[in-house]
Amino acid sequence: DTYSDKVQRDSKYKKLDEKDLLFFRDILKDGNYMISNEQDLEFYNEDWMRKYKGQSQLVLKPKTTEQVSEIMKYCNAQKLAVVPQGGNTGLVGGSIPVFDEIILSLSNMNKIRSFDSVSGILKCDAGVILENADNFLAENGYIFPLDLGAKGSCHVGGVCATNAGGLRLLRYGSLHGTVLGLEAVLPDGTIYSSIDALRKDNTGYDFKQLLIGSEGTLGVITGVSILCPSRPTSTNVAFLAVSSYETVQKVFVGARKELSEILSAFEFMDGKSQLLTGRYLKADHPIESGDYPFYVLIETSGSNRDHDMEKLETFLANAMEEGLVDDGIIAQDEAQSQSLWSWRESIPEASAHDGGVYKYDVSIPLKDLYGLVEAAETKLNEANLVDIDSNDKPVVGAIGYGHLGDGNLHLNVCVREYNKNIEKTLEPFVYEWIQEKQGSISAEHGLGFQKKNYIGYSKSDVEIKLIKDIKNHYDPNGILNPYKYV
Ligand code: FAD
Ligand code: 2HG
Ligand code: ZN
Q: Which BP terms does GO give this entry (predicted)?
């Protein structure tokens, strides 16, 4: 895809030349830290969904914050545009250059800096892979307060830059609360650091909060300090079948009341998402008694297995007795827990498996949440675009799932090919629908390139002006992640 219908290259940005390459080579000392050959560039130029494709000619992979600073200072002076990139698992095209921007990858900055086993504070480089950080914490009896399906690839810095939410936000809260400090390089090369901040610090503006969720438009995050909870010693997973969305909400209310402090995840999935995931996993669904319109995955995390299991079993028995749950299973061991989780965590991959996927990551008041999937489906059917089995139709189906406990729906429109007709059918329809329900057009994935023209559906003119003022103040040349949402 080219973006010529959406945006033009801004001629204020300089085009890369030999002199620049010499300069970067000099800073990075070792040629291995620069990528400029076509084949190796491919991974960095294309996003996880294979939907966005940039044309960068250069990836820089610095090893130190000072190198990042020198790179940014030079790029600012030369007006060379830069896209910070973590694990490149973002879902809104934010980590991909639009034209020839330089990609600044944090993947060589991957060291744990320190861990305080009394306070639970972890300090690490931004390029540490989330799963590696969590494995390190596990050895120390702690857990990273964020978990998501992309953990094997995404970076700690990348999740902060997107303010990712994930599977346990319900339990551990947002990164705006758990991140204690950041180290970052501003567009002019200034190194900002609050990495030594402690749990409480009320000394003036909390600048790091601007960087959390800034999607690479305000600074390059190079280090993160984060407060980590003790790792639960007992975890249980239940998978339930439910006959209506109305009832899913009742199960949620019951789970919060009865499981209270041990509830650590409440995920919901519609039947269509499970059908697609089953095709993708080539496996039989864990609930064998039939196809149900909705499923719920409940996780508990605590410190006493007998106590937690008893609570979960009582909850499930009551829910079945009251007719809220039609069928359900509780994992008996770790392997079964993981297997149940895979029916939730594999949905993003399954959704793209037939060719591509249009993703809408939205917050909507709970009572209306699933209505968006039904509305999108009706719209696509009216346009005669959908057929799950027929290759003649471009759309496989619209599925809904997500972090119900956080009021966060993922509407995925699974397609055989990316196609302007599908996009026009869905946009701005989906965004208008969300606005009408006072929702947000991005609950957790951000705006990136995908939603650059739609910010007005969720932010007022005053809010947008404040965002632009801040951007212009810290990045007057606009070199950091241009053409995206700001
Ligand atoms: P990238 O994709 O590389 O970058 C994302 C954005 O951050 C870009 O705008 C980039 O410019 C910027 N950026 C990256 N690193 C830095 C840095 N060091 N400094 C400044 N800017 C930077 N998200 C959720 O919220 N919840 C989920 O449950 C969830 N599950 C997912 C499951 C799968 C299978 C996938 C593929 C994605 C999922 N995501 C989820 C999307 C989520 O946004 C990303 O996985 C993650 O936040 C991005 O991290 P990354 O290191 O890959 O960043
Ligand atoms: C998830 O919750 C992620 O699995 C990805 O946020 C959602 O792919 C999606 O739409
Ligand atoms: Zn999600």
A: lactate metabolic process; malate metabolic process
Percent of the chain exceeding pLDDT 90 equals 97
Question: What's the whole-number mean pLDDT along residues 416-424?
Answer: 95
- Could you tell me the distance, in angstroms and rounded to a whole number, from the CA of residue 89 to the centre of ligand 2? 11
Ligand located closest to 446 CA? 1
Phi and psi at residue 193, in whole multiples of 5°?
-145, 130
Q: Tell me which fold the domain 234-347 belongs to.
A: Alpha-Beta Plaits (3.30.70)
Residue located nearest, by CA, to atom 4 of ligand 1: 95
Burial class of residue 267, CB neighbours in 10 A (0-12, 13-18, 19+): buried
pLDDT for residue 29? 86
Specify the DSSP element, H or E, that contains 273: helix 271-281
Per-residue confidence band for 2, with pLDDT thresholds at 50, 70 and 90? low
| Among the listed residues 228, 128, 136, 120, the one whose alpha carbon sits nearest the alpha carbon of residue 175 | 228
Pocket lining: 379 vs ligand 2, CB cutoff 6 Å = no
d(C-alpha 109, C-alpha 444), whole Å: 25
- 87 Cβ inside 6 Å of ligand 1: yes
Q: Whose CA is nearest to atom 8 of ligand 2?
A: 348
Is 264's C-beta closer than 6 angstroms to any atom of ligand 2? Answer: no
CA distance 247 to 286: 20
Q: What is the mean pLDDT of the chain?
A: 96
- Ligand 3 centre to CA of 309 (Å) is 27
List the chain domain ranges. 234-347, 354-445
- Determine the distance separating the centroid of ligand 1 and the alpha carbon of 154, expressed in angstroms: 6
pTM exceeding the 0.90 threshold for the entire prediction: yes
Instruction: Tell me whether the CATH fold assigned to 234-347 matches the one assigned to 354-445.
Output: yes
Q: Is 48 in the pocket of ligand 1 (CB under 6 A)?
A: yes
Distance CA(165)–CA(270), nearest Å, equals 20
Per-residue pLDDT band for 6 (boundaries 50, 70, 90) equals confident
The verdict on the CB of residue 149 being under 6 Å from ligand 2 is: yes
pLDDT reported for residue 73: 98
